[in-house]
Amino acid sequence: TDYEGNAEIYLKARYEGVSSYVIKDLINNHKYNLIDICEKLDGRGSKATPFDPDNVELLPSATERFHHEVWYVEHRSEIEEVLELAADLLEEYERQQRDYDDDNDGDEDFNIPKELIFK
Length: 119
Fold this sequence. Notes:
The chain has 5 helices and no strands. By secondary structure, it is mostly helical. The longest helix is centred in the last third of the chain and has 28 residues, at about 75-105.
């Protein structure tokens, strides 16, 4: 299919120093999962070249799934940074909520003038 053809084209362009045989073997073993294949190659220390669609000619009907996987692979570190920042912000928000709840436990005696109380 075009997905499979584009996966092979992309991987050969991204990992120029890796033989076609190794790429095809990884493609078959990982069932064309670009994310898994790139993790495997990166883990082996293979040098990755950023994807440049102007220099790599893909098959014309590349699927949306293919482009999503390529985008994820190409921007993984930024995605992980944003997710880590979001987790840190959520943790800080929850801490502040706990601190606020501890400081405002409802035991305060409120003296509201009678004319301001709705009946």
